[in-house]
């Protein structure tokens, strides 16, 4: 396959590029798993060079597959950021081995540190704070450590409702950010409505939590697929946006695209430059190619893939 490169564009399929959306999408990141990455012939045909690509570590995925995916992304010119899910890491020695493998294979110096989606820990760790406290990321010279953020209340974290546990964890992570040389940021769960995100980010600022926010956005996918993932991931009140759309059965098989939430957040950021959202992070629920194409067609990086001259 002939490799594609990227060229400046000033219009998208539906007309001129929206400059606020274009600015908001600059430097976006995207997420893959080893099994989905294996289906992509060449990421250079889909993503601008240096795009940060998170590698999701799902329970049961061998570390060898994770490290090989990180190496492949690095070799193709991308910025690999693997997940470190606390509950599937047996002990400190296992964590040290993972870090060593990533650095040996792909010179990785960044990671998303999170609790993970399994109910019971596989070993010594149950939350991201315990991983950070090992000191291994600092010893390995990690330059970027991202931790999870939840714009909407999450019953897995706060079973009684509210945000008491969530904010206690964020307070700890903010204090940790002052003790590490790594740059820290909040990479969030996705939701489907801008206002809950705006309210949450403003609340963070009021509480003095000044970590940059990389806002999670669900990429285009069939409505049924989107609802399934949203329920599984504990998405909160903004799920009603999808449920309302689902009442029209003619729309169930049509893709749901993030145009509205992206446009609203971009406009808010443009009007409030100090707003803490720094980047957009895509969850490609409908496929990497579909998501990458949507980003290109909506001004992401102001680029489009073209055949070399």
Strand residue content: 15-25%
CATH topology call: TIM Barrel
User: What composes the largest sheet?
Assistant: 8 strands, parallel, barrel
Oligomeric status:
single chain
Please report the number of helical segments: 12
Classified by CATH, the class is Alpha Beta
| Total tally of structural domains | 1
Q: What distance separates the N and C termini? A: 15 Å
Written account of the structure:
This protein is α/β, with parallel strands linked by helices and 309 residues long. It has one domain (8-304): TIM Barrel (Alpha-Beta Barrel), CATH 3.20.20. Helices cover 38% and strands 20% of the residues. It has twelve helices and 14 strands. It has helices at residues 19-25, 34-37, 63-75, 92-106, 128-133, 136-139, 164-177, 194-206, 223-232, 239-246, 259-271, 288-297; strands at residues 5-8, 11-12, 15-16, 29-32, 52-55, 79-85, 110-114, 144-149, 183-190, 213-218, 221-222, 255-256, 277-283, 303-306. The strands form four sheets. It has an eight-stranded parallel beta barrel, surrounded by four helices. α2 (34-37) links the parallel β4 and β5 (52-55). α8 packs parallel to α11 and α9 packs antiparallel against α10. Mean pLDDT is 87; it is low at 1-9 and 302-309.
């Amino acid at each position: 396959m002939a490799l594609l490169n990227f060229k400046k564009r000033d219009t998208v399929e539906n007309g001129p590029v929206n400059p606020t959306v274009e600015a908001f999408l600059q430097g976006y990141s995207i997420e893959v798993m080893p099994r989905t990455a294996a289906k992509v012939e060449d990421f250079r045909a889909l993503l601008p060079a240096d795009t940060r690509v998170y590698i999701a570590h799902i329970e049961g995925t061998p570390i060898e597959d994770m490290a090989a995916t990180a190496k492949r992304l690095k070799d193709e010119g991308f910025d690999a950021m693997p997940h470190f899910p606390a509950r599937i890491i047996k002990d400190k020695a296992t964590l040290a081995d993972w870090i060593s493998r990533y650095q040996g294979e792909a010179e990785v110096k960044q990671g998303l540190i999170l609790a993970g989606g399994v109910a019971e820990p596989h070993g010594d760790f149950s939350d991201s704070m315990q991983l950070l406290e090992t000191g291994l990321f600092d010893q390995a010279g990690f330059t970027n450590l991202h931790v999870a953020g939840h714009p909407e209340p999450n019953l897995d974290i706060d079973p009684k409702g509210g945000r008491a546990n969530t904010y206690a964890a964020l307070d700890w992570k903010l204090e940790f950010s002052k003790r590490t040389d790594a740059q820290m940021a909040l990479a969030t769960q996705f939701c489907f409505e801008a206002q809950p995100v705006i309210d949450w980010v403003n609340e963070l600022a009021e509480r003095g939590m000044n970590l940059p926010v990389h806002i999670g956005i669900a990429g285009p996918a069939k409505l049924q697929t989107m609802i399934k993932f949203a329920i599984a991931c504990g998405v909160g009140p903004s799920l009603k946006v999808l449920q309302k759309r689902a009442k029209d059965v003619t729309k169930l098989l049509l893709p749901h695209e993030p145009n509205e939430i992206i446009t609203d957040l971009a406009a808010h950021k443009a009007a409030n430059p100090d707003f803490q959202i720094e980047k957009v992070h895509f969850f490609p629920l409908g496929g990497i190619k579909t998501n990458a194409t949507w980003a290109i067609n909506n001004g992401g990086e102001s680029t489009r893939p073209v055949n070399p001259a």
